[in-house]
Design a protein that fits this description.
Elements lengths: L3 E6 L5 H14 L4 E6 L9 E3 L5 E3 L1 E3 L5 H10 L5 E4 L7 H14 L3 E6 L9 H9 L2 E4 L12 E4 L21 E4 L1 H7 L9
Parallel strand pairs: 1-7, 1-8, 2-5, 2-6, 6-7
Antiparallel strand pairs: 3-4, 9-10
Helix pairs in contact: 2-3, 3-4
């Protein structure tokens, strides 16, 4: 029975690596997968999912207002798909998460979404909030803070090397822009906690 999965974490936890490995496992066994990523995330090139460790794959894209149920149905009309993989799932709109859920239920295709849970201000992304509400299964892809504790938050760094507290929720960037931290060190970075050593 098909399910909707949400694999979430902070920045630089290896979500894209896990997605690409899972897709590879299907393809190695002769099964087709369908990969989707956010249209405006062009860090690896348009329509490409890439990992910091150097692996990548071409993908279709999704954009604002696009009907993902119709997109998946059209892809399935071309031939069987063992699993759909969605990278940068935090950028999905609420209605698009519902469309993916309907595809799971009505088209009987598993959909595995990978994305951030919260933004640099500690707020849920709309797509992530919908996935947390609708997913059949959720898995945390773990990464660590500089102190060794599990990182659950992310800060956006300004040009002066200090954590930003305001700004647009979406700003594409990588290691030069974002740092994953535990909650305690995130609070310290944004000035919500006195600085400590450790």
């Amino acid at each position: 029975m098909a399910k909707l999965y949400f694999n979430y974490s902070t920045m630089n936890a290896g979500k894209s690596t896990v997605l690409l490995q899972a897709s590879h496992n299907y393809r190695e066994r002769g099964m087709q997968t369908y990969l989707l990523t956010a249209q405006f995330d062009r860090r690896a090139g348009e329509g490409r999912i890439a990992s910091r460790i150097g692996i990548g794959s071409d993908a279709d894209t999704f954009g604002p207002g696009e009907d993902l149920y119709a997109k998946l149905a059209a892809r399935l009309d071309q031939g069987p798909v063992a699993c759909v993989f969605v990278d940068e799932a935090q950028f999905l709109e609420k209605q698009q998460v519902w469309q993916l859920a309907r595809a799971v239920d009505d088209l009987d295709v598993p959909v595995m979404c990978y994305g951030l849970r919260v933004d640099f201000q500690g707020e849920l992304f709309p797509g992530s909030a919908a996935l947390l509400a609708l997913s059949d299964e959720m898995r945390e892809v773990r990464t660590i803070c500089h102190c060794g504790k599990k990182a659950t938050m992310v800060v956006r760094m300004g040009g002066d090397g200090k954590a930003l507290r305001e700004g647009a929720q979406v700003q594409i960037g990588g290691n030069e822009t974002y740092v994953s931290l535990c909650r305690r060190h995130w609070r310290e970075a944004i000035g919500d906690r006195p600085s400590t050593t450790g």
